[in-house]
Amino acid sequence: MPIELSFFLEVLVGGLLAGMMYSLVALGFVLIFKASGIFNFAQAAMVLFAAMFIAGMHQRYGVPFWLAIPLTIVLMIGVAWIIERVVLRPLVNQEPIIMFMSTIGIFFALIGFAEMIWGSRSRSLDIGIPQDPIFVGDMLFQSYDLVAGGIALVLVLLLALFAQRTRMGRVLRAVADDHQAAQAVGIRLSTVWVVVWSIAGFVAVVAGVVWGGNLGVQPVMVDVAFKALPVLLLGGLTSIHGAIIAGLIIGAGESLAEVYLGPIIGGGIDNWFAYVIAMAFMVYRPEGMFGEKIIERI
Amino acid sequence: MTFSITRKLGAVGMGLIIGMTGLFAAQAQADEQYLPSLVYRTGPFAPSGVGFADGFADYASLINATGGINGVQIRLEECETAYSNDRGVECYERLKGRGNGATVVAPLSTGITYALIPRARRDNIVVHSMGYGRADAADGRVMDWVFMVPTTYWSSSTVTMQYIADQEGGWENLEGKTLVHAYHDSAYGREPLALFRGYAEEYGFTLEEMAISPPGVEQRSVWTQIRRMQPDWVSLYGWGVMNPTAIRTAASMGIDRERIIGGIYAAQDDAVRPAGSAAVGYKAVTFHGPGRDYPIYDELQEHVFDAGNAAGGGDQIGNIAYNRGLINAAYIVEAWRQAQEEFGEGEVMGREETKWAWNQLTVDEERTEELGMAGLMPPINVTCEDHEGGGLAQIQQWDGESWNALTDFMEPDLERVFPMYRESAESFAESEGIEVRECD
């Protein structure tokens, strides 16, 4: 294979795998928006919160990962319940912007609480995912990325199965379609919110493990949200498969742009170029590739 | 009537208590040297800030526990900046008039330093920027109130280049080699670029400049390109999460960590610990010794740690940031000590006296031994012209558990950097209307 082609493929595949990791974070946003119409600003803080508890329990108290991870999932369910009781329930029927602002409060509260318990020091989170490079001809792939991409794929399949094949999944879809109609047939909105925030918490645990393993666990992990935002803009806020496909496009697009456009216009462009891709698409379809078209009659 | 007398007596008693308390407080304040401490224990860069703040505070506690500076106790007060420029300025303004008045400030951030330089000039307060910006303040002819002790980005980068040349068997062997400078895409990351370009031109090696967009949580595409360049050496100028991500990504690309040399702020524990085993062999330039194998730590143990007075949770002791906090405080205390020798032992030093002392601060090898900090704290010799004090730096290496010094403190190439300092400082002087002073 010519070197240029193999290099292109290496960059492309690396970008696609990076995009899968962005999708992991984006999924949490989508789940909550889809079920409640709330843009959950705190999703990235939930990722950090989960990662800090897993790494903290392991390093400070020697709790093995196989135990620390399920314990953290249980904790995230507790967090979901508290959020529903303390923040969301009192704000039912408020304007979406009020709900959004409340998630900003949740963002800072979660980070502050986690730092209060575990401190601000950075911690490694090595659950044994291999780090060695894999060579296919001249092309190099990172085994960590392949495993992380696989985890993201499995997570999406699980979420899809949950949505399609379980009663609670159907309930969530009903609420997503029409809140008032769902309530009219006896669905309790508060229960749905706890469930959906719990699932978003579970997604945050998975993203926390994958991203924490890659970056180390430290407060700046919340910046992964800025990687998820263009994915949401492109894929739409209400589509799970949109988050995955958009993640792949953004990941590949920014990597190729960095390598092929970067040297021409100065390098270091991958961060903002992702937003350019998303905005260019939004001009044609504001709700994103797979987002639901919102029609408000006045 | 009885009730009234009782009330009156009570009021007099309270008045006496308040008055005496105020008197004692004022007396205590009169004997205290006030030291503002701008820290970032919170925020995205807290992993670097907590250790520094603890080391800085513990050194002040040690001085106080061992009799103060000729009897003068240090009153240290922290203010949280979260590494934000506006909060840094707010902290400075809030603390500068407290106690007997601040005489010196360590901003602990290049951005805050830039913001404070004009304010500190107006207030006649010394700015100690230890190993961060702005590098051209090393030219003491222009900024007589700013000190870069013990080194700058530029001087430390010449030490990095010297180390690379030594490893290659001499400067002449650099011809045809490739050096990649992977940097935080900001003024900080670009600091050593002009220097490296000069070296590349003079010694005939290829310099590849690779910008990494902050915060640097995703760097695959950059390191894919670097791998393709087959670099002989990589200079890494990252900050925060960028460092461990760079090291981990480089490792996954098969790039030899022993050939990656981090800059001063890629030389901390938070650069390597999160990267796990990928960081083993990684090197970095720094301006102090690593670890805690110095006599000062015995004193800290006896007077601070065992007394239960360790700052923070005591979990930062001995890490790189902690050692930086220690030596930063030590230089400040030495300046006050030398000011006292000139203006009166056992007295609290004011702004003029403190600035005088900084302008000729000397901490020689012998003094670092007396302080129990030989090998930890580089000797310095500040002059009217040289506010860097010599610019010594050393190369250290991470073994997976700890940093180890690979070299002694090395002399920077001052003949190369000083013309650059002067050019930049003179331009600053012109824009700010500062008269360049004559140094004999």
Overview of this protein structure:
- The complex is a heterodimer of chains A (298) and B (440).
- With 298 residues, chain A is mostly helical.
- Chain A has helices at 3-36, 43-61, 65-88, 96-118, 143-165, 167-177, 179-184, 189-215, 225-235, 240-265, 270-284; strands at residues 133-136, 139-142.
- Chain A has a single domain, classed as ABC transporter involved in vitamin B12 uptake, BtuC (Orthogonal Bundle).
- Chain A is built from eleven helices and two strands.
- In chain A, a hairpin with a 2-residue loop joins strand 1 and strand 2.
- In chain A, helix 1 (3-36) packs across helix 9 (225-235) and helix 10 (240-265) packs across helix 11.
- Chain A is globular and about 65 Å long.
- By secondary structure, chain B is an alpha/beta fold.
- Chain B folds into two domains: 32-151 and 291-392, 3-Layer(aba) Sandwich (Rossmann fold), CATH 3.40.50.2300; 154-286, Response regulator (Rossmann fold, 3-Layer(aba) Sandwich).
- In chain B, the strands form four sheets. Chain B has a seven-stranded mixed sheet, sandwiched between helices.
- In chain B, helix 2 packs across helix 11 and helix 2 crosses helix 12 (320-343).
- Chain B starts with a helix and ends in an 8-residue tail after the last helix.
- The chains are: A mainly alpha (298), B alpha/beta (440).
